[in-house]
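Now for today's protein:

——
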Amino acid sequence: MSEDHLGVDLSAIEAAAEDLLAEFGIACHLPPVAADKCGKAGLVVTADRVRFPVPLVMELLAGAPVRFTHVARDKQRSLKVSASMAAFGPAMIANHIWHGPVRRVMTAADAAQFVAVANDAPGLDYGASSLGLLASDGTSRLTAFLHASNRPLIVPSRMPFHARDLIAATREGAARDDRSCRLLIVAGIESALTLDDTFVEALTETAEHAQGLVVSPTLLIGANAPATLEGALVRFTAEAMAGVALTQVLCPGQPVAVGAMVTEVSMRNGLPIVGSANSLQVLGAAIAMARRWNLAFYACGPATNSKGVDALGTAETSRWLTAAHYLGANAILGAIGAVDLDDGVSIDKLTVDAEVAAVLGKPRMRVDDNAATELLNAGPGGYFLGTEAAKELAHQQALPQLASNSLFESWAAASHPELNHAIAAIIARTAPVALPNETAILSAPPLDRRPTNLADLASTIYSRSIRDAFGFGG
């Protein structure tokens, strides 16, 4: 029975991927122990390739657990990973940090401050503990990685530390059989139908210690993936199926999920086009394929190509977060707080993006009779903006917020704080994270006051017009 999504027959895509895995397979170099297990399971293993007989790959895929627990150091923050989960996480990797328009190499103190603010953000379920591993002034911060966040530990496989070191840092040396994991490694697949040595290491090490793995193809539409929706989906499906199947061969019941980083590439100049309609269409279909397998889907950034913290970057990220959430992604990672294609992070942007995540993550509102009543009262003679009926309704229902001027007065009493001042206040009240062998964390430099621009002026005029329409002065 076919399943149509966005005009694509998912059954046909799945069948094409199965044929591709059976005939061509996946290029990789498995260590002898892993190769022997795959051969005994019925896979066709050579020195540089693994092929999957058509019926076998789906049987292995069906053995993956449909739910598992991602255990946090604070057990109350542990996540029940499944196809019904909805979670957000900030940027996981970065080499630079931005303070206003200034970009510089990130230090361990910067990473600790970013993690502390991320931990304090109510909309985020994952921490950003792996940032400390990339800090330029640190050589080995695996202990910091373990203790930096009370939230579940998740890290991309392309870190400067080996998967075995990351697993050892979590003090999880023994295999588990309760379908839970302390560490989740996101293993990317960069080249088409090829598992590089970094992926293979993450695969074998997580299997040995029964830690979690996210099989995450990187789809650069028009570059390493076909420019057509169907072609890109066949590549995603084949790689995802192969990666999940291998986890179940090496460690039956191992916690595993699928994911993807999807962006479009300009075929004119080779530059990435983030958040385009085509990339979101591929992302939506990939999520639908994961739902077909009843596995959790992790949507990975980037969400902006902006070179700094500006209106374009925050708007692109907000659009991507919203689209990925409503397309059904179970975890959305990487975009929050990130700029410049994940090469840098910003506490300013982290704060703004986390607010979007907090709103999207709220439970759905229940519809009651009031909604129907308001709809019936719309139309000629009803509650049009600026009419007497609308003014009366505003006074009755929104008096504490609008008529009393309380919000405006409290803002004015605080000397008209701008967003960067609010962010500075968040940083000031956030408890610093202590790093091993360090007595203090350097605080971020004060943020410069931004001059009023056209966007600020337009916002002020719009707010005043709304207030006038409802009959409130000031």
Remarks:
- The first strand starts at residue 4 and ends at 5.
- The chain has a mean pLDDT of 80.
- The radius of gyration is 25 Å.
- The CA atoms of residues 366 and 372 lie 12 Å apart.
